[in-house]
Amino acid sequence: MALSLSARDGEQSPSTSQNPAPNNREFTVAGEHVYNRRSAGRWIMSHVLRYPLLPALVVLFSVSEMVLFSYAPVLIGQAFDLMLSPQRSVAALTSIALLVLGVRIVQGLIGLCSAGTVELLAQRLERNTREELMISLLGKSQTFHNRQQIGDIMARATNDVRQLNGMVNPGFSMIFNSMLGIVIPIIGVAFLDPHLLLAPALFLVFFYWSLRRYTNQLNPVAGAARAQFGVMNAGLTESIGGIEVVKAYAQERSARRRFANDARIFRDLAVKEGQIQARYLPILFFGLMYALGFAHALFL
């Protein structure tokens, strides 16, 4: 999401302003790239589409890899059919085996290219986001900075920006590959025998229900954990920065108690987040539907 710092002195924050003009700032940076800040989704897309070739290559590599991944089992099935037919021969089996080997090698090479491309895209997103945040902070007035907590700004500039990297890789990469892993094999199954689509159709229904339930449970807890991390980091930074005042008024115990309370809340949220992640049901449904699909194929 777009990183924002509430400007209580009348200035617009980086996430709510609509591409503020550089001449309205206290400081400007020459050659600044302007991003679309009308919404979080448009802001992310404007960052990603700054390098249009990279997302296009990610989609191309991912689709090609999944097509080859789905094609290899078809070749193995053809090998079994060949060995059960009267026309079986070692030469024909060898050619199919070499073809499977070639498909797997090409799939692996494409997978490496896909992983490298999506990682490059994630690193550039993180770099450009941090650059945009720093430019935005440079344009703020001294009054704005005096009203902000240093620890909160540092948490946003380091940990929060780093989360955008993970959002692309492995976040977006895993989601996109998972979707392709569902759609392309189902298309392949439909070409083989439409009657085999029973188990995949049931899996899609349970998968959608369980994934929606999982995200509805996880999103509030994950958001609260990130917010609490900023509060804990801000409190600790203020205590360390004003350690002379803390010691002068003998508030060491109070500061320690306040930090321990913030850390305890963050720990509880992290534990709750882990408990929700441990109850990820789609993997269970995948195993059940895999067995059901195999039984259904034997029945047919």
TrEMBL record:
GO terms for molecular function: ABC-type oligopeptide transporter activity; ATP binding. The keyword Acyltransferase does not apply. It is a multi-pass membrane protein. Pfam families: ABC_membrane (PF00664). It is found in: Cell membrane. Residues 56-300 form the ABC transmembrane type-1 domain. GO terms for cellular component: plasma membrane. Keywords: ATP-binding, Membrane, Nucleotide-binding, Transmembrane, Transmembrane helix. Residues 12-26 have a biased composition (Polar residues). It comes from the Bacteria. The keyword Transmembrane helix applies. The chain crosses the membrane at residues 53-76, 96-122, 171-189, 195-211, 280-299. Residues 1-26 are annotated as: Disordered. This is Heterodimeric efflux ABC transporter, permease/ATP-binding subunit 1. It comes from uncultured Chloroflexia bacterium.
